[in-house]
Design a protein that fits this description.
By secondary structure, this protein is an alpha/beta fold. The chain has helices at 14-25, 75-87, 129-145, 163-175, 183-187, 214-227, 261-269, 288-291, 322-339; strands at 4-9, 30-37, 45-48, 51-54, 56-57, 68-71, 91-94, 123-125, 147-156, 233-240, 247-255, 274-276, 297-304, 311-318. It is 30% helix and 23% strand.
Length: 345
């Protein structure tokens, strides 16, 4: 079996750590795992794919002789180094928002639009975490009934803000039980504008003049691109919740064809990557605790929507560090290998 040389940009971050773990878990054929990060992390050693690797500072020359580079260090790093990687003949799979809406860059969820990978020119974008999770519930229904519009309310875990988000919730909760730690100490390094423990924040990313945040617009724009439907109507409210891991999304969707619950459930059951967990009278519905560190996204609470014509309401939960980032990136790499379309030059 051919093995591949893979670079991981942002290897010390939350998503980078998950990428390393999942490469091992999924037994991706790795010949070399090159761990790349900031100068502050260079020289440290980490276990990766069976070897003790030394972390290197990311530079334009870091991508020589690599086959694939998975970027998880933010848009700034992606914009600075993706083209250098591409010029070395190394395919970039980017977890940031840097290239998602570039018309020349495929935006891919492998279970939904894998054929778009055949058009890549060396850079492939991973969708936003909440978009990826939402579409794992919506796409099989779209195939069956024809999606026209949807309204989404997200309940996004703190780890979606990186390690700092996880630490913020942890520190605030600890401060309740340690008298010498007051709230100002617990929240001073938080990435959130208000306390997150026992709280909900309807605010993820920057606000625009129209009152929506950038995160909310990602749901609309990215869903349109992935589904190939530029006229899809989407309204979204993104909320940060005091949950460590796994995003939950409430969806109300309208379709072009008449809908019914049995066919909707059958569509979910027949879709790879989604798991129907929908027996509400037996208290069976997806929860973040249940779907943390799980590859499939859970779908439940499927019912006829009472506001939309031909509408369905549903609840989708997925691990945003996995399907929303690291897992989806590795699935893209696996699909590139399967389709034999790594090379484009």
């Amino acid at each position: 079996m051919k093995k591949y040389r893979i670079g991981i940009v942002g290897a010390t971050g939350a998503v980078g750590q998950e990428i390393i773990s999942l490469l091992e878990k999924r037994e991706f054929p790795v010949a070399e795992a090159r761990l790349l990060a900031s100068a502050n992390s260079a020289g440290r050693q980490m276990q990766a794919c069976g070897n003790l690797e030394t972390i290197q500072e990311t530079t334009a020359d870091s991508f020589k002789d690599l086959d694939i580079a998975i970027f998880s260090a933010g848009s700034k790093q992606s914009l600075e180094f993706a083209e250098a990687s591409r010029q070395h003949g190394c395919v970039v799979i980017d977890n940031s928002s840097a290239f998602r809406m570039d018309p020349l860059v495929p935006l891919v969820v492998p279970e939904i639009n894998p054929d778009d990978l055949e058009k890549h020119q060396g850079i492939i974008a991973n969708p936003n975490c909440s978009t990826a999770v939402a579409l794992m519930g919506l796409y099989p229904l779209h195939k069956r009934f024809g999606l026209k519009r949807f309204i989404a309310s997200t309940y996004q875990a703190v780890s979606g803000a990186g390690a700092a988000g996880f630490d913020a919730l942890e520190n605030e909760l600890k401060a309740q039980f340690v008298p010498e730690e007051n709230s100002s100490t617990a929240t001073k390094d938080s990435p959130f504008p208000h306390p997150i423990a026992h709280n909900l924040l309807p605010h993820i990313d920057d606000f625009r003049e129209d009152g929506y945040t950038k995160e909310e617009l990602k749901m609309k724009n990215e869903s349109r691109k992935i589904l190939g439907n530029p006229s899809l109507k989407v309204s979204c409210t993104c909320v940060r919740v005091p949950v460590y891991r796994a995003h939950s999304i409430s969806l109300s969707a309208e379709f072009s064809q008449p809908v019914n619950v049995p066919d909707a459930k059958a569509a979910i059951e027949g879709f790879n990557g989604a798991e129907l967990w929908d027996l509400p009278n037996a208290n069976r519905y997806p929860t973040p605790l249940q779907y943390a560190e799980k590859e499939d996204c859970g779908v439940g609470r499927i019912r006829i929507d009472q506001a939309f014509d031909n509408g369905l309401s549903l609840w989708v939960v997925g691990d945003q560090l996995w399907k929303g980032a690291a897992l989806n990136a590795i699935q893209i790499a696996e699909t590139l290998v399967e389709k034999k379309c790594l090379k484009w030059m």
